[in-house]
Amino acid sequence: MYRDPAMRRWVAVHVRTPEEAAAWVAAQQDGWHTGDRVSFAVLDDRHRLVGCVALKKPHTKPEVGYWTAAQARGLGVATRAVDALSTWAFSAYGLDRIELLHQVDNVASCRVAEKTGYALRETLPATPPYPLDGHLHIRRA
Known about the structure:
Mean pLDDT: 91
Distance between the termini: 32 Å
Order of helices and strands: HHEEEHEHEE
Oligomer: single chain
Low-confidence stretches: none
Helix content: 25-40%
Largest sheet: 6 strands, mixed
Number of domains: 1
Structural class: alpha+beta
């Protein structure tokens, strides 16, 4: 997945080697143990990995994050995954709002946010690790 140029453009954590991939998977598992991040693999009907969706900081500043594999883009995969995770998170954690952030020029992520009920709240200035301005979207319970 991480050899995809689009993925490298939009994600904050870059995975280039099998060791970095193992560390990324371990970080997802650690997030479950600490409660700081809950990540889910998104599989197609043949059980192939087509994406990932996560709820970051569910107890302090809930934020949804996601990525979609190249072969699954444009098929509604991200929209369904973000909507399912958000609906579940509101119930499971008793949240009243969840944030979704993406770079301003990531038009596809802006569409996912809009389709899943995340209203555009504001444009944020670039901050590391994001070199570009970002959109902050909010979804309320």
